[in-house]
Amino acid sequence: MFRPEHSVILGIGELKPSLDVKGQISLDLLARAAVLAIQDAGLDKGDIDGLLVCPPSEDSYFLWPSQVAEYLQLSPTFMNMVELGGASAAGCIARASLMVAAGLCRYCLCLSGGIWDPQVFNTREGKTAVMSQAEIDYELPYGPMGFNSGYAMIARRHMHEYGTTAEQLAKIAVDQRTNALANPDALFNRQPLSIQQVLDSPIVVDPLHLLEIVRPCSGAAAVIVGNKGPHRAPAHTPVILRGFGEAYTHNSIAYAPSLTTSAIKAAGERAFRMAQLTVKDIDLVSLYDCYTITVLISLEDLGFCHKGEGGRFVERTDLTYKGNLPCNTHGGQLSFGQPSFAGGMSHVIEAVRQLRGEAGQRQVSNNRRALVNGNGGTMSTQCCLILERG
Question: What predicted TM-score, i.e. pTM, was given to this entire model?
Fold first, then answer.
Protein backbone atom coordinates (compact mmCIF):
# COMPACT_ATOMS: atom_id res chain seq x y z
CA MET A 1 0.00 0.00 0.00
CA PHE A 2 1.30 3.45 -0.88
CA ARG A 3 2.38 5.46 2.13
CA PRO A 4 2.95 9.12 1.23
CA GLU A 5 5.12 9.77 4.28
CA HIS A 6 7.87 7.79 2.57
CA SER A 7 8.65 11.01 0.69
CA VAL A 8 9.57 14.40 2.12
CA ILE A 9 10.02 17.98 0.97
CA LEU A 10 13.76 18.59 1.11
CA GLY A 11 14.24 21.92 -0.61
CA ILE A 12 12.38 25.10 -1.56
CA GLY A 13 13.20 28.13 -3.68
CA GLU A 14 11.10 31.16 -4.51
CA LEU A 15 11.64 34.42 -6.33
CA LYS A 16 10.15 37.66 -5.10
CA PRO A 17 7.02 38.45 -7.18
CA SER A 18 7.59 41.13 -9.77
CA LEU A 19 5.55 43.43 -12.00
CA ASP A 20 8.56 44.07 -14.29
CA VAL A 21 10.89 41.19 -15.21
CA LYS A 22 13.13 43.43 -17.33
CA GLY A 23 13.28 41.27 -20.43
CA GLN A 24 13.55 37.88 -18.78
CA ILE A 25 11.58 34.89 -20.03
CA SER A 26 9.84 32.16 -18.06
CA LEU A 27 12.80 29.81 -18.39
CA ASP A 28 15.08 32.39 -16.76
CA LEU A 29 12.79 32.63 -13.75
CA LEU A 30 12.38 28.86 -13.45
CA ALA A 31 16.14 28.35 -13.61
CA ARG A 32 16.74 30.83 -10.79
CA ALA A 33 14.10 29.20 -8.59
CA ALA A 34 15.49 25.72 -9.33
CA VAL A 35 19.00 26.78 -8.28
CA LEU A 36 17.64 28.11 -4.97
CA ALA A 37 15.75 24.88 -4.25
CA ILE A 38 18.69 22.62 -5.12
CA GLN A 39 20.99 24.66 -2.88
CA ASP A 40 18.39 24.71 -0.12
CA ALA A 41 18.16 20.89 -0.24
CA GLY A 42 21.94 20.53 -0.09
CA LEU A 43 21.97 18.69 -3.42
CA ASP A 44 23.83 18.99 -6.70
CA LYS A 45 22.09 19.52 -10.02
CA GLY A 46 23.15 16.03 -11.06
CA ASP A 47 21.11 14.56 -8.19
CA ILE A 48 17.83 15.66 -9.81
CA ASP A 49 16.33 12.71 -11.66
CA GLY A 50 12.66 13.69 -11.69
CA LEU A 51 11.01 16.81 -13.12
CA LEU A 52 7.42 18.07 -12.89
CA VAL A 53 6.50 21.45 -14.33
CA CYS A 54 3.39 23.59 -14.22
CA PRO A 55 2.37 25.24 -17.50
CA PRO A 56 3.83 28.66 -18.25
CA SER A 57 1.64 31.67 -18.92
CA GLU A 58 3.25 33.13 -22.01
CA ASP A 59 5.37 30.45 -23.69
CA SER A 60 4.42 27.52 -25.90
CA TYR A 61 3.31 24.45 -23.98
CA PHE A 62 4.74 22.18 -26.69
CA LEU A 63 7.19 19.74 -25.08
CA TRP A 64 7.38 22.13 -22.12
CA PRO A 65 9.03 19.61 -19.74
CA SER A 66 11.67 18.96 -22.39
CA GLN A 67 12.20 22.68 -22.90
CA VAL A 68 12.71 23.17 -19.16
CA ALA A 69 15.01 20.14 -18.80
CA GLU A 70 17.15 21.30 -21.70
CA TYR A 71 17.41 24.88 -20.43
CA LEU A 72 18.37 23.65 -16.95
CA GLN A 73 20.66 20.95 -18.40
CA LEU A 74 18.93 18.20 -16.47
CA SER A 75 18.65 14.53 -17.46
CA PRO A 76 15.57 13.27 -15.60
CA THR A 77 14.51 9.65 -15.78
CA PHE A 78 10.88 10.73 -15.43
CA MET A 79 9.24 14.06 -16.25
CA ASN A 80 5.82 15.48 -16.99
CA MET A 81 3.66 18.62 -16.99
CA VAL A 82 0.85 19.02 -14.46
CA GLU A 83 -1.97 21.21 -15.76
CA LEU A 84 -4.69 21.67 -13.15
CA GLY A 85 -4.87 25.46 -13.24
CA GLY A 86 -4.33 26.85 -9.76
CA ALA A 87 -4.24 23.30 -8.36
CA SER A 88 -1.17 22.48 -10.47
CA ALA A 89 1.42 23.28 -7.81
CA ALA A 90 -0.20 21.15 -5.10
CA GLY A 91 -0.80 18.49 -7.76
CA CYS A 92 2.91 18.49 -8.56
CA ILE A 93 3.80 17.74 -4.93
CA ALA A 94 1.30 14.87 -4.78
CA ARG A 95 2.60 13.35 -8.03
CA ALA A 96 6.23 13.82 -7.04
CA SER A 97 5.50 11.92 -3.84
CA LEU A 98 3.99 9.09 -5.87
CA MET A 99 6.99 9.02 -8.20
CA VAL A 100 9.49 8.94 -5.35
CA ALA A 101 7.53 6.29 -3.42
CA ALA A 102 7.33 4.14 -6.57
CA GLY A 103 11.07 4.36 -7.11
CA LEU A 104 10.78 6.21 -10.42
CA CYS A 105 13.18 8.85 -9.11
CA ARG A 106 14.97 9.86 -5.91
CA TYR A 107 14.82 13.65 -6.13
CA CYS A 108 11.97 15.28 -8.03
CA LEU A 109 12.11 18.97 -8.88
CA CYS A 110 8.68 20.64 -9.04
CA LEU A 111 8.63 23.98 -10.87
CA SER A 112 5.96 26.65 -11.21
CA GLY A 113 6.12 30.15 -12.61
CA GLY A 114 6.30 32.42 -15.60
CA ILE A 115 5.69 35.88 -16.98
CA TRP A 116 2.18 37.19 -16.41
CA ASP A 117 0.61 39.95 -18.46
CA PRO A 118 -1.73 41.80 -16.05
CA GLN A 119 -4.03 42.57 -18.98
CA VAL A 120 -4.43 38.91 -19.97
CA PHE A 121 -8.11 38.79 -19.01
CA ASN A 122 -8.98 42.22 -20.35
CA THR A 123 -9.08 41.25 -24.01
CA ARG A 124 -11.24 38.76 -25.84
CA GLU A 125 -8.13 36.86 -26.90
CA GLY A 126 -6.94 36.68 -23.31
CA LYS A 127 -10.28 35.33 -22.13
CA THR A 128 -10.55 32.64 -24.80
CA ALA A 129 -7.03 31.43 -23.97
CA VAL A 130 -8.26 30.13 -20.61
CA MET A 131 -11.82 29.13 -21.54
CA SER A 132 -13.26 25.78 -22.52
CA GLN A 133 -15.20 25.48 -25.78
CA ALA A 134 -18.47 25.41 -23.85
CA GLU A 135 -17.57 28.71 -22.18
CA ILE A 136 -16.54 30.26 -25.51
CA ASP A 137 -19.77 29.16 -27.19
CA TYR A 138 -22.31 29.82 -24.44
CA GLU A 139 -20.81 32.33 -21.99
CA LEU A 140 -18.38 34.60 -23.79
CA PRO A 141 -21.05 36.09 -26.13
CA TYR A 142 -22.76 37.54 -23.06
CA GLY A 143 -19.62 39.40 -21.99
CA PRO A 144 -18.24 37.63 -18.89
CA MET A 145 -15.04 39.09 -17.47
CA GLY A 146 -12.98 35.91 -17.30
CA PHE A 147 -12.87 34.25 -13.90
CA ASN A 148 -14.16 37.39 -12.19
CA SER A 149 -17.71 36.70 -13.35
CA GLY A 150 -17.75 33.11 -12.11
CA TYR A 151 -16.44 33.95 -8.66
CA ALA A 152 -18.83 36.88 -8.42
CA MET A 153 -21.71 34.47 -9.06
CA ILE A 154 -20.39 32.19 -6.31
CA ALA A 155 -20.08 35.08 -3.86
CA ARG A 156 -23.55 36.40 -4.65
CA ARG A 157 -25.12 32.97 -4.28
CA HIS A 158 -23.41 32.44 -0.91
CA MET A 159 -24.71 35.81 0.24
CA HIS A 160 -28.21 34.90 -0.92
CA GLU A 161 -28.28 31.45 0.69
CA TYR A 162 -26.52 32.16 3.97
CA GLY A 163 -26.59 35.90 4.58
CA THR A 164 -22.86 36.33 4.12
CA THR A 165 -21.93 40.01 4.08
CA ALA A 166 -19.45 42.08 2.10
CA GLU A 167 -17.81 43.09 5.38
CA GLN A 168 -17.16 39.45 6.29
CA LEU A 169 -15.52 38.76 2.94
CA ALA A 170 -13.44 41.93 3.23
CA LYS A 171 -12.12 40.74 6.61
CA ILE A 172 -10.27 37.92 4.80
CA ALA A 173 -8.37 40.40 2.64
CA VAL A 174 -7.58 42.56 5.67
CA ASP A 175 -6.12 39.66 7.69
CA GLN A 176 -4.01 38.52 4.77
CA ARG A 177 -2.67 42.05 4.29
CA THR A 178 -1.61 41.98 7.95
CA ASN A 179 0.35 38.83 7.16
CA ALA A 180 1.91 40.45 4.08
CA LEU A 181 3.16 43.36 6.18
CA ALA A 182 5.43 40.84 7.91
CA ASN A 183 6.68 39.39 4.61
CA PRO A 184 9.42 41.43 2.90
CA ASP A 185 8.80 39.56 -0.37
CA ALA A 186 5.09 40.37 -0.66
CA LEU A 187 3.96 42.77 -3.37
CA PHE A 188 1.73 44.63 -0.90
CA ASN A 189 3.71 44.90 2.33
CA ARG A 190 3.82 48.63 3.03
CA GLN A 191 0.32 49.77 3.92
CA PRO A 192 -2.21 48.04 6.21
CA LEU A 193 -5.72 47.52 4.95
CA SER A 194 -9.08 48.15 6.58
CA ILE A 195 -12.46 46.60 5.88
CA GLN A 196 -13.76 49.99 4.81
CA GLN A 197 -10.90 50.41 2.33
CA VAL A 198 -11.80 47.07 0.75
CA LEU A 199 -15.45 48.10 0.50
CA ASP A 200 -14.49 51.48 -0.92
CA SER A 201 -12.36 49.94 -3.67
CA PRO A 202 -14.07 49.76 -7.08
CA ILE A 203 -16.61 47.03 -7.79
CA VAL A 204 -15.14 44.87 -10.56
CA VAL A 205 -18.01 42.40 -10.88
CA ASP A 206 -20.79 42.75 -8.33
CA PRO A 207 -20.34 41.93 -5.44
CA LEU A 208 -16.53 41.61 -5.71
CA HIS A 209 -14.34 44.64 -5.06
CA LEU A 210 -10.92 45.25 -6.57
CA LEU A 211 -9.12 44.46 -3.29
CA GLU A 212 -10.83 41.06 -3.08
CA ILE A 213 -9.33 39.90 -6.37
CA VAL A 214 -5.92 38.35 -6.92
CA ARG A 215 -3.04 40.45 -8.25
CA PRO A 216 -1.36 38.77 -11.24
CA CYS A 217 2.42 39.15 -11.40
CA SER A 218 5.52 37.32 -12.59
CA GLY A 219 7.73 34.96 -10.63
CA ALA A 220 8.76 31.37 -10.05
CA ALA A 221 8.99 28.82 -7.27
CA ALA A 222 10.51 25.36 -6.87
CA VAL A 223 10.12 22.46 -4.46
CA ILE A 224 12.23 19.29 -4.27
CA VAL A 225 10.56 16.10 -3.09
CA GLY A 226 12.88 13.24 -2.17
CA ASN A 227 13.02 9.83 -0.60
CA LYS A 228 12.98 9.65 3.17
CA GLY A 229 15.76 7.07 3.14
CA PRO A 230 19.06 7.45 5.02
CA HIS A 231 21.17 8.10 1.91
CA ARG A 232 21.79 11.76 2.78
CA ALA A 233 21.24 13.92 5.83
CA PRO A 234 18.72 16.66 5.04
CA ALA A 235 19.97 20.26 5.03
CA HIS A 236 16.83 21.40 6.86
CA THR A 237 14.09 19.95 8.98
CA PRO A 238 12.32 17.66 6.50
CA VAL A 239 8.62 18.18 5.90
CA ILE A 240 6.59 15.02 5.41
CA LEU A 241 3.60 14.71 3.10
CA ARG A 242 1.16 12.86 5.34
CA GLY A 243 -1.74 12.79 2.91
CA PHE A 244 -3.25 14.28 -0.20
CA GLY A 245 -6.53 14.23 -2.07
CA GLU A 246 -7.92 15.53 -5.33
CA ALA A 247 -11.41 16.06 -6.68
CA TYR A 248 -13.12 17.59 -9.70
CA THR A 249 -16.71 18.65 -10.36
CA HIS A 250 -16.84 20.76 -13.54
CA ASN A 251 -14.93 22.94 -15.99
CA SER A 252 -17.44 25.56 -17.09
CA ILE A 253 -19.31 27.01 -14.12
CA ALA A 254 -22.53 26.40 -16.08
CA TYR A 255 -22.11 22.72 -15.21
CA ALA A 256 -21.19 23.16 -11.54
CA PRO A 257 -23.44 20.96 -9.37
CA SER A 258 -23.37 23.69 -6.71
CA LEU A 259 -22.07 27.22 -6.43
CA THR A 260 -21.63 27.11 -2.66
CA THR A 261 -20.16 23.64 -2.10
CA SER A 262 -16.94 22.87 -3.94
CA ALA A 263 -14.80 19.85 -4.81
CA ILE A 264 -12.47 20.79 -1.97
CA LYS A 265 -14.87 18.95 0.33
CA ALA A 266 -14.10 15.59 -1.30
CA ALA A 267 -10.42 16.43 -1.81
CA GLY A 268 -10.02 17.36 1.84
CA GLU A 269 -11.81 14.24 3.04
CA ARG A 270 -9.44 12.08 0.98
CA ALA A 271 -6.39 13.89 2.30
CA PHE A 272 -7.50 13.56 5.93
CA ARG A 273 -8.35 9.90 5.41
CA MET A 274 -4.92 9.14 3.93
CA ALA A 275 -3.19 11.06 6.72
CA GLN A 276 -5.41 9.48 9.39
CA LEU A 277 -5.96 12.93 10.85
CA THR A 278 -8.85 15.36 11.33
CA VAL A 279 -9.30 19.08 10.98
CA LYS A 280 -8.55 19.42 14.70
CA ASP A 281 -4.97 18.27 14.04
CA ILE A 282 -4.23 21.20 11.70
CA ASP A 283 -2.26 24.17 13.08
CA LEU A 284 -2.24 26.45 10.02
CA VAL A 285 -3.76 26.58 6.57
CA SER A 286 -2.45 27.73 3.19
CA LEU A 287 -5.59 28.13 1.10
CA TYR A 288 -5.70 29.17 -2.53
CA ASP A 289 -7.11 32.68 -2.46
CA CYS A 290 -7.71 34.02 -5.94
CA TYR A 291 -10.77 35.72 -4.41
CA THR A 292 -11.95 36.22 -0.83
CA ILE A 293 -14.96 33.96 -1.41
CA THR A 294 -12.59 31.12 -2.31
CA VAL A 295 -11.06 31.18 1.17
CA LEU A 296 -14.46 31.33 2.88
CA ILE A 297 -15.91 28.37 0.98
CA SER A 298 -12.70 26.38 1.45
CA LEU A 299 -12.86 26.83 5.22
CA GLU A 300 -16.45 25.59 5.21
CA ASP A 301 -15.88 22.62 2.90
CA LEU A 302 -12.77 21.50 4.79
CA GLY A 303 -14.74 21.39 8.02
CA PHE A 304 -13.33 24.32 9.98
CA CYS A 305 -16.93 25.50 10.30
CA HIS A 306 -20.32 24.29 9.12
CA LYS A 307 -21.67 25.11 5.67
CA GLY A 308 -23.18 28.57 5.68
CA GLU A 309 -21.29 29.68 8.78
CA GLY A 310 -18.18 30.83 6.93
CA GLY A 311 -19.05 34.51 7.10
CA ARG A 312 -19.52 34.50 10.85
CA PHE A 313 -16.49 32.23 11.27
CA VAL A 314 -14.04 34.56 9.50
CA GLU A 315 -15.60 37.56 11.23
CA ARG A 316 -14.81 36.22 14.70
CA THR A 317 -11.60 34.30 13.88
CA ASP A 318 -8.16 35.89 13.73
CA LEU A 319 -6.69 34.55 10.49
CA THR A 320 -3.35 36.32 10.87
CA TYR A 321 -0.09 34.65 11.84
CA LYS A 322 -0.81 35.77 15.42
CA GLY A 323 -4.31 34.29 15.44
CA ASN A 324 -6.03 31.06 16.39
CA LEU A 325 -6.24 29.85 12.77
CA PRO A 326 -3.29 31.27 10.82
CA CYS A 327 -4.28 31.42 7.17
CA ASN A 328 -2.02 32.34 4.25
CA THR A 329 0.67 33.71 6.52
CA HIS A 330 2.74 34.97 3.58
CA GLY A 331 -0.11 37.29 2.57
CA GLY A 332 -1.79 34.91 0.16
CA GLN A 333 -2.14 35.68 -3.50
CA LEU A 334 -4.29 38.68 -2.59
CA SER A 335 -1.31 40.49 -1.02
CA PHE A 336 1.76 38.38 -1.83
CA GLY A 337 0.81 38.13 -5.52
CA GLN A 338 -0.05 35.38 -7.98
CA PRO A 339 3.02 34.52 -10.05
CA SER A 340 1.85 33.04 -13.36
CA PHE A 341 -1.18 30.79 -13.97
CA ALA A 342 -0.22 28.26 -11.32
CA GLY A 343 0.60 30.65 -8.52
CA GLY A 344 -0.27 28.15 -5.80
CA MET A 345 3.33 27.06 -5.21
CA SER A 346 3.73 30.05 -2.88
CA HIS A 347 1.17 28.40 -0.59
CA VAL A 348 3.20 25.17 -0.49
CA ILE A 349 6.45 27.01 0.20
CA GLU A 350 4.97 29.16 2.95
CA ALA A 351 3.63 26.06 4.73
CA VAL A 352 7.08 24.45 4.49
CA ARG A 353 8.75 27.57 5.86
CA GLN A 354 6.34 27.66 8.79
CA LEU A 355 6.84 23.97 9.60
CA ARG A 356 10.61 24.41 9.45
CA GLY A 357 10.40 27.41 11.78
CA GLU A 358 11.91 29.71 9.13
CA ALA A 359 9.15 32.27 8.64
CA GLY A 360 10.80 35.09 10.57
CA GLN A 361 8.51 37.77 11.97
CA ARG A 362 5.38 35.95 10.84
CA GLN A 363 6.38 32.61 12.37
CA VAL A 364 3.47 30.70 13.85
CA SER A 365 4.39 29.25 17.23
CA ASN A 366 3.77 25.63 18.22
CA ASN A 367 2.83 24.42 14.75
CA ARG A 368 3.32 20.87 13.55
CA ARG A 369 0.86 20.30 10.70
CA ALA A 370 -0.37 22.43 7.82
CA LEU A 371 -3.09 21.98 5.23
CA VAL A 372 -2.37 23.33 1.76
CA ASN A 373 -5.01 23.68 -0.95
CA GLY A 374 -4.78 24.34 -4.66
CA ASN A 375 -7.85 25.46 -6.61
CA GLY A 376 -8.07 25.22 -10.39
CA GLY A 377 -10.55 27.02 -12.62
CA THR A 378 -13.72 28.40 -11.04
CA MET A 379 -13.73 26.19 -7.94
CA SER A 380 -13.42 23.31 -10.41
CA THR A 381 -10.39 21.16 -9.60
CA GLN A 382 -9.04 20.82 -6.07
CA CYS A 383 -5.90 19.31 -4.55
CA CYS A 384 -5.26 19.18 -0.80
CA LEU A 385 -1.96 18.37 0.92
CA ILE A 386 -1.41 17.68 4.61
CA LEU A 387 2.17 18.45 5.60
CA GLU A 388 3.88 17.60 8.88
CA ARG A 389 7.16 18.66 10.42
CA GLY A 390 9.55 15.72 10.43
Answer: 0.95
